[in-house]
Write a structure and sequence with these properties.
The structure is a single chain. The protein is an alpha/beta fold. Helix content is 34%, strand content 22%. It has two domains: 182 residues, 3-Layer(aba) Sandwich (Rossmann fold), CATH 3.40.50.720; 273 residues, Dihydrodipicolinate Reductase, domain 2 (2-Layer Sandwich), CATH 3.30.360. It has a nine-stranded mixed β-sheet, sandwiched between helices. A six-stranded parallel β-sheet has the order 5-4-3-6-7-8, with helices on both faces. Strands 1-2 form a two-stranded antiparallel ribbon. Helix 8 packs across helix 13. The longest helix has 26 residues.
Length: 493
């Protein structure tokens, strides 16, 4: 049964429907070819898409339906594993295409005609340059593609600061109320990120210890081995702080630090996340380090420096480390160390929760050395959870008791051998089609993130802070190591 509600502005919107039309903007672009089309095909092969769903692609490229299907087939053959292509022909028959220049309002009526009239509803995935948001939303509204049974998914970047983000969000809000807006952070589609909530709130052993009384510090690292990789113009305008910290890393921080929500639904989960983001203390002088890579080697292969790849000098940071604090009851005094960069030694995304030492060791008099417990949550490239515990080394203890830190490791693909390892966008696209906002970012979250990030950038400008150089293949500038070591902390590598 379809339910209709009013948004805060008095506009009607429809809930509880599964879209039978999906409109992909930027359908011929890199994101679509690598992620969206393979994700949709994989879902279709498993019977997870509504049998009636039609998928319409649009972009500036002049293609017809068959041309788009040929492009999609090439993408699936390149990016989707062979064992997940069983129903590829059926999926390709769902696809159609309409060329569109978003700056030309007259083209939207032809797009609306191509989409037709959904029986249930329409979901739109908008992956476009920020400059095209406003004309695109205007065109959707004028052509009837923003009705009460239409949802819209927004791919980042959503602005370059708080002011530009508000401009984009205001433009979207002219046609879509907040309950029909799905802001995408693909990290939230990763299985291990979702499992963080299960780890915390489905296991009695963790939540009583998840606070300043028992946790010494938290580290969040997002390390990349790649350089610009074709993102020259975007990345030099954005830098590591805007590209990674503002969205992915702050979402991870919020999930680690949030209070238990009343229930696992979109409103309650996002209410708790935004409380954390609003509790972030403004970063002080000396609590950030920025860097920019120079020529070096990754995996034994020589790679150029950032300025060489860019072809000019630049003061854009490719590395940033931050010592963050959350000023609330649970986390007062616990530092959160954030680190991200390009051309680092290995690709990894992980969260490290370092517990405090036991208040008193009964083994000291017998020569034993204690190491605090540590929880490591690996997100990519490997999905795993490792808890280090102290255990006695076997022996007769004639020369003292030996203790050693041993890992209790859960490798997620091994623990759950049945399910396929999914592309993060599979979950997000399915939730968009079915109308579940839990793993999407709300406007007040986005604005709280930008507010914190803008203050950091303002501090850099005031201090005239310039990125320190680091060699490609290293873990960033030595000052990033010192940032943690001043507190007796060593980065987990």
């Amino acid at each position: 049964m379809v339910a209709r509600k009013l948004d805060p502005d008095g506009r009607v919107y429809v809930t509880n429907f599964i879209s039978d039309r999906l409109l992909l903007f930027g359908a011929t672009g890199d994101l679509s070819r690598r992620m969206l089309l393979p994700s949709l095909c994989a879902l279709d092969v498993e019977g997870l898409l509504d049998p009636k769903i039609e998928i319409i692609g649009t972009a500036r490229s002049e293609l017809d339906d068959q041309g788009f299907r040929n492009l999609a087939r090439q993408s699936l053959e390149q990016f989707l594993p062979v064992d997940r292509r069983g129903g590829m022909a059926t999926f390709l028959n769902r696809l159609s295409y309409q060329a569109l220049d978003a700056n030309r309002i007259e083209g939207f009526q032809a797009l609306a005609d191509k989409v037709g009239t959904p029986q249930e509803g329409l979901s739109i995935f908008l992956s476009t340059a920020p400059s095209l948001f406003e004309p695109t939303i205007h065109g959707l509204g004028q052509s009837g593609l923003a009705g009460s049974n239409v949802r819209i998914g927004l791919e980042k970047p959503l602005g370059i600061d708080l002011a530009s983000s508000r401009v984009i969000n205001d433009a979207v809000a002219t046609a879509f109320p907040e309950p029909r807006i799905y802001r995408i952070d693909h990290y939230l589609g990763k299985e291990t990120v979702q499992n963080l909530l299960a780890l915390r709130f489905a296991n009695l052993m963790f939540e009583p210890l998840w606070n300043a009384a028992h946790i010494d510090h938290v580290q969040i690292t997002v390390a990349e081995t790649v350089g610009l990789e074709g993102r020259v113009a975007f990345y030099d305008d954005a830098g590591a702080l805007r590209d990674m910290v503002q969205n992915h890393m702050l979402q991870l921080l919020a999930l680690v630090a949030m209070e238990p929500p009343v229930s696992y639904d979109a409103t309650n989960v996002r209410d708790e996340k935004v409380k954390v983001l609003r509790s972030l203390r403004k970063v002080r002088v000396g609590e950030t380090v920025t860097g920019q890579y120079r020529a070096g080697a990754i995996g034994g292969q020589a790679v150029p420096g950032y300025d060489d790849e860019l072809g000019k000098d630049s003061d854009t940071e490719t590395f940033v480390a931050i010592k963050a604090h959350i000023d609330n009851w649970r986390w007062q005094g616990v530092p959160f160390y954030l680190r991200t960069g390009k051309r680092l030694p290995r690709r990894t995304t992980e969260i490290v929760v370092q517990f405090r030492s036991v208040p008193h060791s009964i083994f000291t008099g017998r020569g034993a050395k204690m190491v605090p417990n540590r929880l490591v949550i690996g997100i990519q490239p490997s999905e795993n959870i490792t808890l280090s515990l102290m255990a006695k080394v076997p022996g007769l203890d004639r020369e003292g008791i030996g203790l050693r830190s041993i890992p209790l490791a859960i490798t997620m693909p091994d623990a759950f051998a049945g399910p396929q390892r999914r592309i993060a966008y599979e979950r997000l696209l399915l939730d968009l089609i079915e109308g579940d906002q839990t793993l999407f970012v709300r406007r007040d979250e986005v604005e709280a993130q930008w507010d914190w990030i803008d203050a950091i950038r303002a501090g850099w400008e005031e201090q005239q802070l310039e990125p320190r150089t680091y060699t490609a293949g290293s873990w960033g500038p030595s000052a990033a190591i010192a940032l943690a070591e001043r507190d007796g902390v060593t980065w987990h590598e």
